[in-house]
Design a protein that fits this description.
The complex is a heterodimer of chains A (280) and B (365).
Chain A lengths: L1 H37 L3 H6 L12 H8 L2 H33 L5 H10 L9 H11 L5 H5 L6 H13 L2 H9 L4 H12 L1 H17 L2 H6 L8 H16 L1 H35 L1
Chain B lengths: L3 E10 L2 E11 L4 E5 L6 H9 L6 E6 L2 E2 L10 E4 L11 H11 L4 H15 L14 H14 L4 E5 L7 H18 L2 E6 L2 H7 L2 E6 L2 E6 L1 H6 L4 H6 L6 E11 L2 E6 L3 E6 L10 E6 L4 E3 L5 E10 L4 E6 L5 E6 L10 E6 L5 E3 L15
Parallel strand pairs in B: 3-8, 3-9, 6-7, 7-8
Antiparallel strand pairs in B: 1-2, 1-4, 4-5, 9-10, 11-12, 11-14, 12-13, 14-20, 15-19, 16-17, 16-19, 17-18
Helix pairs in contact in B: 2-3, 2-4, 3-4
Classes of the chains: A mainly alpha (280), B alpha+beta (365).
């Protein structure tokens, strides 16, 4: 009986593995296709876009891209915005998360509900008033304008709140008896303990900021203030007809490289983060 | 070192009263143990002394000063928590130094105090380790070390040994007792384990449902429990209780009729019970034996062999299970009927309300 059951379980595992591999291949093929096309000359692509082997091989598409004077500028913008936004999100989310998790203050529940309600409002719904407000302040085409609308992230606050709630209260009580002020407790006990949660939130924020397209598109009208996503899209719009598919594909690969690298380096935290947000 | 005084202390969460008008004096250098079942309010009371719970009514005094409104950190107390509450990201040294640094203690002084505490607790080899790389016993020692370096007026222990295994618990129990001897500090210790209370305390405070049932030295409570609850809570195996009725009462001498037509003599405070009153007779297991002339008949259900003693669980005629602690190695067979004899120890008598009415010199002549 047991042997039969374990036999079934073994076949079940194999089937699951086969499906997983199939899905992984299906997901990976378009990526491979894009990379292959980015490494082929446009003349070849005019003839046929088929094939997963970059032959004839060329790096010309990438060389053309890097030669564009504005690309380093766009990369810098993306880096400033993504790093700045990440830092600000971490500061706001950890402070607010801690406050919701452990402090008592008037209207705490109301404020919390309002914050969570923020999750339900699609960002496009507030684009117009947001754009108008930033225009009134005269800060469009600045890094601040690209960062500020994304600094208060309800899901980040929620994630940090959940994390802080899980920290045993005795730790704070021990620190309290150890003459620590509320801020010392936050700074020297809670924050160091929340490094895994902060890393996860930071990574997701960075990836989101780097990939962000719509707001930078409407806020940054000056080509010098484009982020790399907006900038590369603008090349595609302007040059696609003349430069061909190879350039478009090279720009797509180029724009996603930092995120791929980030994922490879921090995949442990990202997977843990997904599990954390799913499990809680 | 300081004394701790509670004056009519009470605590309520919303409309639920959990501590009722508790008054207690803990002398300088005394080791007092709060003991009671889960939910009796012992930890809450300790946390109120620590300043981690607000006091709803009454006063808490430490060193003669009212501290109801004083922040926990300014009360001069150090606390050891059940789950150790060590800062996981800090080394043992930093765990101990954290409080002193916050207090602005000079570095040399911090180092000296840590070295001294580590010496007492044999923690020198582990000072640079993180808590996660240590065993439960070592962690608890670090938690105690963190309290020692603060040189507090009062040490508070909240079930510090509950997370340890049995062998380590016994070892740490001895170490804490030694520590108290070495430091001579005032210590208040919370536990639900009556053995810890009996072995460590100068005085035990037995709590039930937020009220003090009895306060006294361990042996005093063991031999003179004030009521059925204290009698049943202290001692392992617990005291045997047999229900009966007062058949004769002459001064302090009474005769109690038990089920099965057995009449047992006992001594009570004169006038505390009258003929016909229902009473409960309490007999410690070591005061119950097996002998041919035994007054009580018992049906042996289980025999537990503990090496030095054996515990015989037997059912007596009224259906109650009693336990006898025998020193000789000839155990009665399970399923047999044995005569149970009551030894020369105290026969505790409790009235219908459960209050002890045993005569202070209650031994039978």
């Amino acid at each position: 009986m047991n042997a039969t059951r374990s036999g079934w379980a073994l076949w079940g595992d194999r089937l699951l593995l086969a499906i997983t591999v199939l899905v992984a291949i299906l997901w990976f093929l378009p990526v491979l296709w894009v990379v292959t096309m980015s490494l082929k000359p446009n003349s070849e692509l005019m003839r046929s876009t088929w094939g997963f082997i970059p032959y004839p091989f060329t790096l010309q598409n990438y060389a053309d891209l890097v030669r564009l004077a504005t690309v380093p500028r766009w990369l810098t913008n993306s880096l400033i915005v993504a790093v700045g936004m990440t830092i600000l999100v971490l500061v706001v989310s950890s402070l607010a998360g801690y406050a919701f998790a452990r402090l008592q203050f008037p209207f705490k529940r109301t404020i919390f509900v309002l914050m969570i309600a923020g999750l339900m409002i699609p960002e496009q719904a507030v684009f117009l008033p947001l754009h108008q407000m930033f225009a009134d302040w005269g800060i469009h085409n600045t890094h601040a304008a690209l960062m500020l609308p994304r600094v208060a992230v309800p899901i980040g606050v929620f994630l940090m709140m959940q994390f802080f709630r899980a920290v045993p209260r005795e730790l704070e009580e021990a620190a309290e008896l150890d003459h620590a002020s509320r801020f010392t407790i936050f700074w020297k006990i809670m924050l160091p303990l929340s490094v895994p949660a902060l890393t996860t939130l930071g990574l997701f924020t960075f990836i989101h900021a780097w990939n962000d397209f719509l707001w930078p598109l409407v806020s940054a009208t000056n080509a010098n203030m484009y982020t790399v996503t907006v900038g590369l899209a603008s090349i595609q719009g302007n040059f696609a007809q003349t430069q061909g598919l190879g350039s478009i594909m090279a720009s797509a690969v180029f724009a996603s490289l930092p995120i791929v690298l980030l994922f490879l380096i921090f995949q442990r935290f990202i997977v843990a983060g997904v599990a954390m947000s799913a499990g809680k | 070192m300081a004394e701790v005084t509670l004056h009519g202390v009470s605590k309520a969460y919303g409309g639920t009263q959990v501590i009722h008008d508790v008054s207690l004096e803990v002398a300088q250098g005394e080791f007092v143990v709060f003991v009671g079942p889960s939910g009796c309010g012992k930890s809450t009371l300790l946390r109120m002394i620590a300043g981690l719970e607000e006091v709803t009514g009454g006063d808490v005094l430490i060193g003669g000063q009212r501290v109801n409104d004083t922040a926990a950190r300014d009360r001069g107390v150090a606390m050891v928590f059940q789950n150790y509450a060590l800062y996981p990201h800090m080394s043992v040294r930093d765990n101990m130094a954290f409080g002193l640094r916050n207090m602005g203690t000079a570095r040399a002084d911090i180092d000296r105090r840590i070295a001294k505490a580590a010496g007492i607790l044999q923690l020198e080899p582990y000072l640079d380790r993180k808590p996660r790389a240590m065993s439960g016993g070592q962690r608890q020692r670090v938690a105690i070390g963190r309290a020692i370096v603060r040189e507090p007026e009062v040490f508070l222990f909240d079930e510090p040994l509950s997370n340890l295994d049995a062998a380590l618990r016994v070892q740490m129990r001895t170490e804490i007792a030694k520590l108290h001897h070495a430091l001579g500090a005032t210590m208040i210790y919370v536990t639900h384990d009556q053995t810890e209370a009996m072995t460590m305390a100068d005085r035990i405070v037995v709590l039930r449902a937020g009220r003090i049932e009895q306060v006294g030295a361990p042996l005093e409570l063991y031999e003179r429990p004030a009521n059925l609850f204290v009698a049943g809570f202290l001692g392992s195996p617990k005291m045997n209780f047999l229900r009966g009725r007062v058949a004769v009462a002459q001064g302090s001498d009474i005769g109690i009729d038990l089920a099965g037509g057995v009449r047992l003599p006992a001594r009570v405070r004169p006038g505390s019970v009258r003929q016909g009153d229902e009473v409960t007779l309490g007999l410690r297991p070591e005061n119950l034996g097996v002998a041919p002339d035994g007054e009580l008949r018992g049906h042996v259900d289980v025999v537990e062999q503990l090496g030095s003693v054996q515990l015989v669980y037997a059912t007596v005629p009224d259906g109650t299970t009693v336990v006898a602690e025998l020193r000789d190695r000839r155990a009665p067979a399970v399923g047999s009927e044995v005569p149970l004899v009551i030894g020369p120890g105290i026969r505790h008598v409790f009235d219908a309300d459960g209050a002890a009415v045993t005569l202070p010199e209650g031994d039978l002549p």
